[in-house]
Amino acid sequence: MLKLAMRIQQNRKMRIALVLCAGAVAAAGALYLYFHNPYSYPLPCIFYTVTGLYCPGCGAGRACYSLLHLKFKDAFSYNPLMTLLVPLICIYIAARLIDWMITGGNHVDGKISVKLLVWILVIVFIYGALRNIPVFPFTLLAPGGLAQIW
Predict the structure, then answer these.
(1) Which residues contact 48 (CB under 8 A, 6 or more apart)?
(2) Which among 32, 53, 131, 133 counts the fewest CB atoms within 10 Å?
(3) How far is Cα 78 from Cα 148, in angstroms, rounded to an integer?
(4) CA dihedral 36, 39, 44, 49 (to 10 degrees)
(5) What are the domain boundaries of the chain?
């Protein structure tokens, strides 16, 4: 296994092939979500099922479905934080894969501030707590909450 990892690390063509395969899997997943209606068949959230509380990711399936259909207002109403973070996550993944594909190394992570990552983590935890407060305006953060206004 270690020899295979070393061969992949040293062979640019193998890295390109792996990135293309990963891209094909991601495209297949996006295509599945595009045609799979999460409104009819929602993906259950284990955290919500066990605790009755919304996790920071609740509504993400419907938000991604809405993003794929270019319904940004709907996506934002299901999970505002995730809707804002998805483009940043996609840029990070693309930059990381391109860097690895070209150089075989990781030159991206060192350029990201640890303070920024800590702030994002703190914001995610605060968001997860606030969306469970059953008082207006915090109810707007629950999945579909902003749809009440729009």
Answers:
(1) 54, 55, 58
(2) 32
(3) 11
(4) 180
(5) 2-148
